Amino acid sequence: xxxxxxxxxxxxxxxxxxxxxxxxxxxxxxxxxxxxxxxxxxxxxxxxxxxxxxxxxxxxxxxxxxxxxxxxxxxxxxxxxxxxxxxxxxxxxxxxxxxxxxxxxxxxxxxxxxxxxxxxxxxxxxxxxxxxxxxxxxxxxxxxxxxxxxxxxxxxxxxxxxxxxxxxxxxxxxxxxxxxxxxxxxxxxxxxxxxxxxxxxxxxxxxxxxxxxxxxxxxxxxxxxxxxxxxxxxxxxxxxxxxxxxxxxxxxxxxxxxxxxxxxxxxxxxxxxxxxxxxxxxxxxxxxxxxxxxxxxxxxxxxxxxxxxxxxxxxxxxxxxxxxxxxxxxxxxxxxxxxxxxxxxxxxxxxxxxxxxxxxxxxxxxxxxxxxxxxxxxxxxxxxxxxxxxxxxxxxxxxxxxxxxxxxxxxxxxxxxxxxxxxxxxxxxxxxxxxxxxxxxxxxxxxxx
Length: 449
Known about the structure:
Number of helices: 17
Largest sheet: none
Shape: globular
Number of domains: 1
Structural class: mainly alpha
Radius of gyration: 21 Å
Distance between the termini: 27 Å
Helix content: over 70%
């Protein structure tokens, strides 16, 4: 019996949830620390223009992570369903295929992105001040893109195979080493944003090595097989992972939309203020991604094992946890905005005040984000993709873009900061009032409730 089976078949849902959630939460937030640390060291060691430049390059991370999530979550979902149905051979075939796919796709993207770094930087919102720094950062990330994708994809499979603690350990090692390397490369070697990018990449390599420990466990289900190119498997992996791909791709749209809106309404001051908020948002956002990553193996396994009541309990406990997390983040932002801004070495009072105002308004969105990610993950984990894609499209694309167009025209920069809370809030209200008691209940009844 595999690690995941031992846990999920013998424990209560609440105990299993927190065994997955706590290490995953710590791991995801440490993953976000890798990006936030770049901002802290660049802001203090190079300056506000360089800080804004690295923020412009954040969509590169989104591209790499979105593809690795597309394949990793899609494959991980199929893997857990197969393990829940006691089909180990199929699970191992899916694991092998997923790693091969992510290698091929990300290698092509990395080469293309490196060759087209300048036009991509301009597309992401770089101006003449920020372009050189942004290109330096992007070229390093694109060159090492396969390693970054392997780390993200493998962490998903380790978690699906009942190893959330090893997944967390890999991210702890990555985060701690990233701090040391950032200091060394920026402050000692004077490598500026190139050093920040290299620090992130080398630290990720160390995390990848930690994940490899899972393969040597006696009851590990992760085994490589000779790859088989089953069209049905590839299509299903793509379908199941598509909502996560959209969610992460939506992060790129979010960054570009905010950069364009703030550049128009507040210039470089607005871009610098948003760079601070976006680094903080990465930290909070990945916490909710972590919640989704926690319940996905559980729901997929329970679905494969036909334990529908356990699915219902998993959603219930995650709703309570998501709301508590949102309240905590809002309180941190409201009462600690000044301190949060100060750690990034902001140079002018105008940037500082705009960032503080932005944090207090922007963080309202975290009250709703948990509900949205829980239901997106729920539908995805039981292979009911339509509603999951709908949630992602509305919260990350349609409503967000509309809010970024309409609200600033009415309220200036205040409207920009409120765009994300408006989009998240509208989707969450719909889910609570309509989908929670409607779509979910009807679908589970069709599955045997």
